From TrEMBL:
Cofactor note: Binds 2 Zn(2+) ions per subunit. One is catalytic and the other provides a structural contribution.
Enzyme class per UniProt: lyase
Residues holding Zn(2+) 1: 98, 196, 227
Needed cofactors: Zn(2+)
Name recorded for this polypeptide: Fructose-bisphosphate aldolase
Lineage: Eukaryota, Fungi, Dikarya, Ascomycota, Pezizomycotina
GO molecular-function term, one example from the UniProt record: zinc ion binding
Length: 301
C-alpha cells in the first residue's frame, strides 16, 4: 500500500532551505510515518490552543494563517504566531495557507515571520498557474521560505479561500504533480477527491490509487499534504490510511473553530469574558490534541 520511500527532500529540482523549521518538521514526519497538524488560526485563542496542544502532546505542529490575517490585523497575528512558535518547548513553524494573489505572497514573504507560504494559483488557467507559481516560488525560496502548491483543483470553500464550488473539479495527475515539482515547490497538495469544507451525504470519495501514483511519481522529492480533512470523516483509521500513502501534513480548520464558536454562543453573557476566552481556548486545544493522536504525531517532538 505504501508507495516508494522518499528521501528527506534533499534531491529533486527544489532547493533545500538550510534551517527552515517547517521543512524540517514535515520531513521528519514523512520519514517517521506520521503527519503534522497544520492548524488554521484566525485569532490569538487559536494560536495559544495550538501551542498548548503541541506541548501537552509533545507533538510538532504548524500554525497556519490565511492572508486575511495580514489584511485584517496588519501583521499583528503573524507576530504573535511567530513569537508563540519561537517560545514553544516543541518544534512549531508558521505557514501561510492559500495565498491566492501575487501581491499578498510577495508582501508576506517580505515582512518576515513565515517559514512557508502556499502559492495557490489554482484559480488561474493552467499555463498562467504554472508561470505565476514558478515566479512566486522562486521569490519565496530566495527569502528562505519553503512553498506549497495545489495542482488540479480542490473544490469547496472555507474562510479565507476563494469559493471554487462551481468550478469543474480537476483531479491531480502524476504528470501534473511532476510539472509542479519542477517549479521548485517543497509541498504538494493533490486533489484526489478531497474538498474544502463540508462533504456531501456520501462523505469523502477518495481516489487512493491516484494518490499512490502521485506519491510514486514525486514522493522522493516533495512532501504530500492533505487539504479538506474534515474531522467528521477524517478520524483515526482514514488518517492512518492517508499517511500510508505519503501524506505528511494535514490541515485542520473547521472543527477547531467550531469549538470556539460553540463555547462562545453557550457562555457569552453568562460568565465573565475572560472565562469565555479561556474556555474557548481549552475547547480548541482538546480538538487539536485529538487530531494529533490520530495523526500519530503525539510524542514525536
Amino acid at each position: 500500500m505504501t508507495a516508494t520511500n522518499g528521501t528527506n527532500g534533499t534531491n529533486g529540482s527544489h532547493a533545500k532551505l538550510q534551517g527552515n523549521k517547517a521543512e524540517t518538521i514535515v520531513n521528519a514526519a514523512y520519514n517517521g510515518k506520521y503527519a503534522i497538524a497544520a492548524v488554521c488560526c484566525y485569532n490569538m485563542e487559536g494560536i495559544i490552543a495550538t501551542v498548548r496542544a503541541a506541548e501537552a502532546k509533545k507533538s510538532p505542529a504548524l500554525i497556519q494563517l490565511f492572508p486575511w490575517s495580514i489584511e485584517y490585523a496588519d501583521g499583528l497575528l503573524l507576530h504573535a504566531a511567530q513569537e508563540a512558535a519561537s517560545k514553544a518547548s516543541v518544534p512549531i513553524a508558521v505557514h501561510m495557507d492559500h495565498a491566492q494573489s501575487p501581491k499578498i505572497i510577495r508582501h508576506s514573504a517580505d515582512i518576515g515571520g513565515f517559514d512557508g507560504i502556499m502559492v495557490d494559483m489554482s484559480h488561474y488557467e493552467r499555463e498562467e498557474n504554472l508561470s505565476l507559481t514558478k515566479e512566486l516560488v522562486q521569490y519565496c525560496n530566495e527569502r528562505g521560505i519553503i512553498t506549497e502548491a495545489e495542482p488540479g483543483r480542490i473544490n469547496g470553500s472555507e474562510d479565507g479561500i476563494a469559493d471554487t464550488v462551481d468550478m469543474e473539479e480537476i483531479l491531480t495527475t502524476p504528470e501534473q504533480a511532476e510539472q509542479f515539482v519542477a517549479l521548485g515547490i517543497h509541498w504538494l497538495a493533490p486533489a484526489f477527491g478531497n474538498v474544502h469544507g463540508q462533504y456531501g451525504p456520501s462523505g469523502p470519495q477518495l481516489d487512493f490509487p491516484r494518490l499512490q501514483r502521485i506519491h510514486e511519481q514525486v514522493g522522493d522529492r516533495v512532501r504530500l499534504v492533505l487539504h479538506g480533512a474534515h474531522e467528521k470523516y477524517f478520524q483515526k483509521d482514514l488518517i492512518a490510511k492517508c499517511i500510508s500513502y505519503g501524506i505528511a501534513k494535514m490541515n485542520i480548520n473547521g472543527p477547531v473553530n467550531a469549538a470556539f464558536t460553540e463555547v462562545g454562543a453557550r457562555l457569552t453573557g453568562k460568565v465573565p469574558l475572560t472565562k469565555v476566552v479561556e474556555e474557548q481556548t481549552n475547547a480548541m486545544q482538546r480538538v487539536i490534541e485529538e487530531n494529533m493522536d490520530w495523526l500519530l504525531s503525539s510524542g514525536k517532538a
